C-alpha cells in the first residue's frame, strides 16, 4: 500500500511530543502498556456482552520483548481486541475525536494544555517516537482472519499493508534510536513497569535471555557454548490493584502490608479509609493515617504522600496538589476512571474532574478524622499529638472547611491534663465567663504556670494552652467559636473581663510609682499599668491592641523576618504585691531604676525573651540583692 500522510493534527502532535512534552521519556512504555491493557479490557467486555464473542477464547496477557544487539528493538504485545486496516489508519493516522481536534486547534501553542490529550487511546502511542527511529504495529482484529502492519518513521507519513499474525491482538515494535537504546534492558523495563503499571489488572510478562550456567555451558561445548543463553519469561507486575478490590475481600493485614509497601514505613498505619465513588465521577481512594509524623513533614521540600492513578495506571507521586498542604501527612492512592492518562501537573491544577475528586477527598478525610475522634479518642489524641500542628494550618488555608476543622483541633488546658476540644471547653464553661480564653507561647508546662493566668485561675476560668507557633498565626483569624469570642490573655484588653476584681484604693496608692517607672522604662515599654490579672506575681508583660505579641514576634523571627514593626509591650504590675507596695513607699531613685528594669526583665524572661544585655542584668540583680542584705 502506498504511503499516506498523517493528518495535520497528528503532525502537530508529533512535533509537540518530540520537542516539548514528556521530559521523562520512559513514559512511552507506560503508554504502550496502557493501550495494551485497554485493548484487553475491550475484548473482555465483548466476550461478556456480545453473542458473537461469548465463545471466543480469551487469555489476557501483555508480553514485552527486547533485543539489545544490533537490531536494538523493544516490542509490546497483547492478546486484546486488535485493529483492522481501517482502524489502524484511523487510530494511528488521524485524531478521530472531533472534540480532540478542536481542542488542539484552540490550544495551539499551549503545550501544557495539549498534554491533556496524550493519554487518549491511539494518541499516547506517539510517545514512542521519542525513543524510536521507526515504529511497526502488527494487529489482527478479534474475529478477523487477516492481520495488517502499520509502519512509520514519525516524519509525516505512514503505510498500512497486509501481514501475518497467528492470534488476535496487537504487537508494537520500536526500532530504538541512540537515545532509546537504554530501554533495551531487562532491569530498565522491569523498573518502569513496576513503577507505572504494577497494578495493571492483566499479567505483564517480560521475555529475556539469561546467560547459561556453568553446567549448561559445559554440556554445550563445541556448539558455540559461549553464545548460548536460556530464554526466560517472567511476570513483572502484581496484576492486582489492592484498592480496586472489594473491602469485603481484604483483611486488616492486607491493608497494613500494602501501606508498608506504599510508604516504606516500618510501623503499621494508625488508621485508613477505603472508598469507591460512583455516579457523575468514578474513582477509588485509599487514605492512610501514619502513626508517626513523616520525618520531612516540616521541610519546604517535603515529599507528598499521595499516588495518582488513572484506570490503575500510575501517573504521579510528586504532585502536591492532589490534597491541600495541611493534609500532607496523608498517605495513599487516588485512582480515577475519568482523568486522561497523561494529565500534566499544570492540567491537574485546573482540571474540573481532579478538583471535584480533591474536594470530595478532603471532606471524606475530615469526616473520617471526626469519626476517629468520636469512636477512638485515644487513637485520635495520638494522631493529634504527632500531626495536629500540621492540621491546624487548614484553619487559614481552607476557610471552606474551617467549621469542620474547628471540631478537630485540640489544645492543652489550664484545668486538666491531656487534650481538649473547643466543644468540650464550651460545654463546661462557667456561667459568668464571657469568652474562650487562650494563651500562646513556647512550652505547655511553662505556659500553665504563667503569671498571666493567675486571676483567671482564681475565678475558675479555663484557659487553653496554645504552644504551637501556628496557633499565633491562625487563632486570631478564627474570631469566634459558636457564640463565644476567642480572647488571648497575652493582650491587655482581655483583662477587662476581670474588672470586678479591681482594687481601686491600691491602684491609687501606686499611681506616682507607675509614673516614675514609666519614665525609667520609656525606651522599652509602651506603658506601665496596674494589673487585673496578677495575684501572686509582681509583674507581667502583655501586648496592646493589635500589636504583635511577643510569641508572634518570635514566630516572625523564626520565619526569617528581621525588619519587624517597632512595637513595645505593656508592663503590668500587681498593686498588692509586697515588692510594688515597698517601692511605692520608698523614694530611692537608684533602687527604683534597678527594680523597674528587673521587673520588666523577669516578665520578659517568663515570656521566653532573653535580656538584651545579660551582664547589665546580672549587675542590677546583684545591686538589689546587696541592698537587701545590708
Distance between the termini: 116 Å
Largest sheet: 9 strands, mixed
Shape: elongated
User: What is the CATH fold-level name of the largest domain?
Assistant: Heat Shock Protein 90
Which range best describes the helical content: under 10%, 10-25%, 25-40%, 40-55%, 55-70% or over 70%?
25-40%
SS content category: alpha+beta
State which percent range the strand residues make up: 15-25%
Ranges where pLDDT stays below 50 over 5 or more residues in a row are 96-107, 110-122
The main sheet orders its strands as 1-6-5-4-7-3-2-8-9
Q: What's the number of helices?
A: 23
Assigned CATH class of the largest domain = Alpha Beta
Q: How many individual β-strands?
A: 23
The CATH architecture of the largest domain comes to 2-Layer Sandwich
Instruction: Spell out the CATH superfamily of the largest domain.
Output: Histidine kinase-like ATPase, C-terminal domain
Tell me, rounded to a whole number, the average pLDDT.
Answer: 84
The total tally of domains equals 3
Radius of gyration over all CA atoms, rounded: 36 Å
Amino acid at each position: 500500500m502506498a504511503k499516506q500522510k498523517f493528518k495535520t493534527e497528528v503532525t502537530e502532535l508529533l512535533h509537540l511530543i518530540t520537542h516539548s512534552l514528556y521530559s521523562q521519556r520512559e513514559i512511552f512504555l507506560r503508554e504502550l502498556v496502557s493501550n495494551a491493557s485497554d485493548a484487553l479490557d475491550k475484548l473482555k467486555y465483548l466476550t461478556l456482552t456480545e453473542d458473537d464473542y461469548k465463545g471466543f477464547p480469551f487469555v489476557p496477557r501483555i508480553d514485552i520483548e527486547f533485543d539489545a544487539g544490533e537490531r536494538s528493538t523493544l516490542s509490546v504485545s497483547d492478546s486484546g481486541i486488535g485493529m483492522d486496516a481501517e482502524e489502524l489508519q484511523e487510530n494511528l493516522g488521524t485524531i478521530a475525536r472531533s472534540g480532540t481536534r478542536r481542542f488542539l486547534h484552540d490550544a495551539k501553542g499551549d503545550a501544557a494544555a495539549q498534554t491533556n490529550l496524550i493519554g487518549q487511546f491511539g494518541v499516547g502511542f506517539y510517545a514512542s517516537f521519542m525513543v524510536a527511529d521507526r515504529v511497526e504495529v502488527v494487529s489482527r482484529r478479534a474475529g478477523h482472519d487477516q492481520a495488517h502492519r502499520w509502519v512509520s518513521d514519525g516524519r509525516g507519513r505512514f503505510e498500512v499493508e497486509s501481514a501475518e499474525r497467528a492470534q488476535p491482538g496487537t504487537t508494537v515494535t520500536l526500532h530504538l534510536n541512540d537515545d532509546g537504546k537504554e530501554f533495551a534492558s531487562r532491569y530498565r523495563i522491569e523498573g518502569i513497569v513496576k513503577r507505572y503499571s504494577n497494578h495493571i489488572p492483566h499479567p505483564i510478562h517480560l521475555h529475556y535471555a539469561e546467560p547459561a550456567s556453568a553446567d549448561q555451558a559445559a554440556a554445550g561445548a563445541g556448539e558455540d557454548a559461549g553464545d548460548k543463553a536460556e530464554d526466560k519469561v517472567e511476570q513483572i507486575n502484581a496484576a492486582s490493584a489492592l484498592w480496586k478490590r472489594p473491602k469485603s475481600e481484604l483483611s486488616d493485614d492486607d491493608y497494613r502490608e500494602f501501606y508498608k509497601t506504599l510508604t516504606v514505613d516500618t510501623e503499621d498505619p494508625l488508621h485508613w479509609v477505603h472508598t469507591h465513588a460512583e455516579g457523575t465521577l468514578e474513582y477509588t481512594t485509599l487514605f492512610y493515617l501514619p502513626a508517626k509524623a513523616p520525618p520531612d513533614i516540616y521541610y519546604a521540600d517535603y515529599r507528598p504522600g499521595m499516588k495518582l492513578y488513572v484506570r490503575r495506571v500510575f501517573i504521579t507521586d510528586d504532585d502536591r496538589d492532589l490534597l491541600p498542604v495541611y493534609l500532607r501527612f496523608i498517605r495513599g492512592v487516588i485512582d480515577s476512571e475519568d482523568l486522561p492518562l497523561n494529565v500534566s501537573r499544570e492540567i491537574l491544577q485546573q482540571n474540573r474532574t481532579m478538583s471535584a475528586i480533591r474536594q470530595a477527598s478532603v471532606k471524606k478525610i475530615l469526616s473520617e478524622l471526626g469519626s476517629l475522634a468520636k469512636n477512638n479518642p485515644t487513637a485520635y489524641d495520638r494522631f493529634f499529638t504527632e500531626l495536629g500542628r500540621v492540621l491546624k494550618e487548614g484553619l487559614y488555608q481552607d476557610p471552606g472547611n474551617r467549621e469542620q476543622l474547628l471540631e478537630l483541633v485540640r489544645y492543652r488546658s489550664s484545668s486538666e491534663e491531656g487534650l481538649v476540644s473547643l466543644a468540650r471547653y464550651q460545654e463546661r464553661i462557667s456561667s459568668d465567663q464571657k469568652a474562650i480564653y487562650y494563651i500562646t507561647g513556647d512550652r505547655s508546662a511553662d505556659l500553665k504556670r504563667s503569671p498571666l493566668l493567675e486571676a483567671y485561675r482564681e475565678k475558675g476560668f479555663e484557659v487553653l494552652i496554645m504552644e504551637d507557633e501556628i496557633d499565633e498565626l491562625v487563632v486570631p483569624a478564627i474570631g469566634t467559636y459558636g457564640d463565644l469570642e476567642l480572647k488571648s490573655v497575652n493582650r491587655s484588653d482581655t483583662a477587662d473581663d476581670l474588672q470586678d476584681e479591681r482594687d481601686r484604693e491600691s491602684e491609687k496608692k501606686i499611681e506616682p510609682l507607675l509614673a516614675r517607672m514609666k519614665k525609667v522604662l520609656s525606651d522599652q515599654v509602651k506603658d506601665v499599668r496596674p494589673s487585673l490579672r496578677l495575684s501572686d506575681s509582681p509583674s507581667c508583660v502583655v501586648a496592646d491592641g493589635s500589636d504583635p505579641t511577643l510569641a508572634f514576634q518570635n514566630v516572625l523571627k523564626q520565619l526569617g523576618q528581621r525588619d519587624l514593626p517597632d512595637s513595645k509591650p505593656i508592663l503590668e504590675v500587681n498593686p498588692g504585691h509586697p515588692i510594688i507596695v515597698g517601692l511605692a513607699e520608698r523614694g530611692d531613685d537608684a533602687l527604683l531604676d534597678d527594680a523597674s528594669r528587673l521587673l520588666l526583665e523577669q516578665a520578659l524572661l517568663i515570656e521566653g525573651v532573653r535580656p538584651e544585655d545579660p551582664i547589665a542584668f546580672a549587675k542590677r540583680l546583684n545591686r538589689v540583692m546587696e541592698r537587701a542584705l545590708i
